[in-house]
Structure formats: C-alpha cells, structure tokens
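Let us practice reading a record.
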Amino acid sequence: MIRALLITLALAFAAPAAAETVAITGGRVITMGPAGEFENGTVVITGGRIVAVGANVTPPDGANIIDAAGKIVTPGLVATGTALGLVEVRTVEATDDRATGARGISAAFDAAYGLNPDSLLIPVARLGGITRAIATPAYKDRDGTELLFAGQAAAVVLDGRPMLMQRGVAMVLGMGDAGAERAGGSRGSELVALRAIFAEVRDFKARRAAYDRGETRDYLLSRADMEALIPVVDGRMPLLVTVDRAADIRDALALAREKGLKLILESASEGWRVADEIAAAGVPVILTPVSNSPASFETLGATLANASRLAAAGVVIAIKGNGNHREREMRYNAGNAVANGLSWNAALAAITINPARIFGLAGRIGSIEPGKEGDVVIWESDPLDTLTRPAAIFIRGRVQPMSSRATELRDRYLPALLQSAPGEKP
C-alpha cells in the first residue's frame, strides 16, 4: 500500500510546476483548525497553498489525486528549540553556527544568517513529519566576557530551498543557573543587569540622535545589541527565556510584567508548580515532556506530568524533540505526554498549531485551512505512535523525497548484509 502510494506520488510529480494542484482524498483529515476533523476528507492544494478542505470537497479537474484512504492526514509538524540548519556536527566547530563569541554581539546575533538548507540533518527530521522549525541560537562560552543574550531565533522551512521563513521570531535569554553564571555568578546580578539593560534600551531609543553625537553616557551594551532589543522592549518580539526552577519562573514573569515584555518560557521543568501563575500571565511554555530526572537543584521538581498539568491549567504548550540530531522524536515525546495525562488532541496541537501560534506564524502554518501554506503529512496510522511513518510529506504543496543520508546508506549496504551466509559475518 505504502509503496503504491509512493509510486503514484513519483509519477504525479515527475514534472513539478509552481501552480500544481494536489487533491489528497479519502483520509481522516485532522485540520487542527476550527473545522476539526473529517473522517473521509479531501484537502486541495494549489500553487503551494491550501484552497479547500472538507468532507464534501470535489477535486478540481486536472488535479493530481492522492488516495489517502485508511490513513491520517495532519498539518506538517513544527519543531521548536532546535538548531536545524545551524549545526551539522557539534564537535566540528566549522559546522556549528549556533552561537557567537564576538564582543559587542549578543542580542544582535541573528541565526538567520547562518542557515544551511543542505544540512544532512534536515531530511532526517523531515522524515519524522517535520516541515518547519524555529532555528534557535545557543550560548558560546567566552572567557571573561558576559553574554546575557544568545541572539535572535528564525522560523525556517525544511524543503531544501532557501530556508528562511521569518527572522527575529524571538530573542533568546537564559535564566536560572546558567544565566546566573554568565551574569556574574548569581541570579540577583542577572536580574539587576537585565532591568538596567531594558531601561537603557528605552533610553537609547528615545535619544538615538544624542547617542550618535556622543552626548549620552556609555551604555552597557553595544549599539547593535540595543537596536536588536528595541522590538523586545516594545513588546513586538517575544523574549524566549530558558528557565526551570519555580522561583526563577516567577522572577521571569515578574520581569516581563514590570517591563511590558512578551514572554515565552522554555524547559520550565518545575512549571507545573506555578502553572496557574503562568496561565494567568498568558505565557506559553515550550518543554520536553520526558524530562523527569533531577539533574540539578533547579530541576528537583521535574515530572513526566509537567505537560498535562500545565495544559490543564490553561497554559499553551509546545513540545520539543530530543536535540538537533533527534528532532524526529518530537512526536514520540508528544505520545509520551499522552501516556502521562495529556489528551491526544492537545499533544498533536503541541507539535503543530501551538508552536505556530507561539511564534506568530499561525496565519501561515500549523493547521489545514484555506489560505495557509500547503504543509501536509499523510501518516500510515497514529502519528504519535513510534511505529508509524509518514506515507507522504508535502511542504508548500510540493511532495518531498522520502529519503535521507541514513536511508541511502541502508539501501547501499543492507542487500549485502542480507546475502551473507547464515552465521557468517558480512
């Protein structure tokens, strides 16, 4: 069945065209939008955008018909907290563009400039149903130099063409243990520094001309960093804060409230302890629901029920993968969250529409609705089941190759292994 579908897709898209019309028919379509789902639904994509979805939709004349009977159709998955496109091999510095070590560049570091659409990690992630990602910068240790901000995250598309979807979707900041270490060794010093920085950015914004004439005092950050932080203090760019301890989460919420910042929490291992406060503040949380080990004093309250307890309190959550080389496991993590109390629909939302909403992209991706970009995945069965694979993947309406470097190596060497004599080492 799957092989037949792949052959059909290969023939249908042998001559790609920008205005190609695709009609995916007969599947259980889970839109993740207001329409809900359709047991025998049809999705029509024209020119890279979804133009129709429903149970009574007639495919247009000339459309390439893709039979999804017996399968599940969902939006493409959206990876968060990842460095897809920014790193190849972490131990090979030349292939790692996640961070800066340059003095005077902290908040101004823009991950969008280092993207590599030919990264070998992208096809592997895509085979897990991931069609978009938030490429997020990381910190780079610098001797003797404080580095409070890691830089700006970018939204990217994983179809092998120019990757950048939108730059500056969030400013990355670390709090808790790591943030305290970078800011002089204590949480108090970081909070004082952050308050001073945000005040100075507002002052700089109001007195740019005086700054250019040298008529202001010296500021803590470079001009480039202050310019980059203006959208943050204006509440236009969210501040993505990595934090775990309940007390640190409260500090982050208080800082955002005081300074009028738009906040996103990442990790939040003890988030369940302050779930009501997070929900009352309208702050979303990006987390790894399989984190339940007290690896440090700030994660003593980590639990597998974190995702379900946050969602029950009304917090919008997004679920991460397990690192850049294992982003495809994001849906497995979502399934794990279901096993620990999160509803199935909430888990699917946490890897589709929720990350799109959190980063201001819900008008373009995250659900199957007319007008949105044609990111659609056809699954053999339950997408949260570890044994399920995508039968077909569409990004911007184009069918994607179902191969990666790993599958190519398998196809190259597996036949020889299978032909080896019984008991003989190949």
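A brief commentary: The first strand starts at residue 21 and ends at 30.
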